[in-house]
Amino acid sequence: DAGVIQSPRHEVTEMGQEVTLRCKPISGHDYLFWYRQTMMRGLELLIYFNNNVPIDDSGMPEDRFSAKMPNASFSTLKIQPSEPRDSAVYFCASSLLAPPLDTQYFGPGTRLTVL
Amino acid sequence: QKEVEQNSGPLSVPEGAIASLNCTYSDRGSQSFFWYRQYSGKSPELIMFIYSNGDKEDGRFTAQLNKASQYVSLLIRDSQPSDSATYLCAVKVGAGGTSYGKLTFGQGTILTVHP
């Protein structure tokens, strides 16, 4: 299996621009998770989906952030408008079994820099 | 109080020694416990999970769980320079909790194994 695929791997943008991050989960996995990692805050769960339906978005920092999962093989995380404090590494992860006994597999991440 | 706490380190051990990594958690409803390894610039990689009190061994790695003390640890025997990484403890609560399904990470412990 190719594992979790994320694109782009690096994104540099200017404040105020829209940013879209993409994720393809492992085939057959029915849970998808979006995380953000910074030095200050560590690894934070932003939102997760089960069978394409958002289950918990309590970690989404504010209305500028939105996530969708239109089908089982694709998800997006959008930031509009972007701000310098959004600079971080964004990871997507997927799992097969239902929580709490699942194992999450992480994608390579997207390093976002907002100037 | 943070939900999941780890000593940030860095923890430095000589090659061949035992590295001991510790983690405490605050939610007594937690049922699943994971250790991830993250190399610099890479994504987290699952190395161990444990659900029951006691020890679980996998090769050079041993995870230890004590739910009464809300404590989970990871021992790495015969440490190698290639074990140098950040080790993340992650905890999930069981069904019925307000954060059901959410994976909460500690800040991570930086481990350095020197030749």
Helix fraction of chain B, binned, reads under 10%
Largest inter-chain interface? A-B, 20 and 25 residues
Shape of chain A: globular
The end-to-end distance of chain A, rounded to whole angstroms, is 36 Å
- List low-pLDDT spans of chain B: none
Unreliable residue runs of chain A = none
Content-based structural category of chain A = mainly beta
For this structure, the quaternary state is heterodimer
Largest sheet of chain B: 6 strands, mixed
Percent of residues of chain B in beta strands? over 45%
Rg of chain B (C-alpha, Å): 14 Å
Describe the global form of chain B: globular
How many β-strand stretches of chain B?
11
Q: Averaged pLDDT of chain A, please?
A: 92
Beta-strand portion of chain A reads over 45%
The H/E string of chain B reads: EEEEEEEEEEE
Helix content of chain A: under 10%
Summed up, the helix count of chain B is 0
Q: Which series of helices and strands of chain A comes N to C?
A: EEEEEEEEEEE
Task: Give a topology summary.
The complex is a heterodimer of chains A (115) and B (115).
Chain A: E1 5-7, E2 10-13, E3 19-24, E4 31-38, E5 42-50, E6 53-56, E7 65-71, E8 74-79, E9 88-95, E10 105-106, E11 110-114
Parallel strand pairs in A: 2-11
Antiparallel strand pairs in A: 1-3, 3-8, 4-5, 4-9, 5-6, 7-8, 9-10, 9-11
Chain B: E1 4-6, E2 11-14, E3 19-25, E4 30-38, E5 45-50, E6 54-58, E7 61-66, E8 71-76, E9 85-93, E10 103-105, E11 109-114
Parallel strand pairs in B: 2-11
Antiparallel strand pairs in B: 1-3, 3-8, 4-5, 4-9, 6-7, 7-8, 9-10, 9-11
Explained architecture:
The complex is a heterodimer of chains A (115) and B (115). Chain A contains no helices and 11 strands. With 115 residues, chain A is an all-beta fold. In chain A, strand 7 and strand 8 form a beta hairpin. Chain B is globular, with a radius of gyration of 14 Å. In chain B, the strands form 2 sheets. In chain B, strands 2, 4, 5, 9, 10 and 11 form a 6-stranded mixed sheet that branches. Chain B has a 5-stranded antiparallel sheet with strand order 1-3-8-7-6, with no helix packed on it. Chain B has no helices and 11 strands. By secondary structure, chain B is mainly beta. The N and C termini of chain B lie far apart (37 Å). Chain A binds chain B through residues 33, 42-45, 48, 55-56, 91, 98-101, 103-109, and chain B through 31-32, 34, 42-46, 49, 51, 88, 92-95, 99-108.
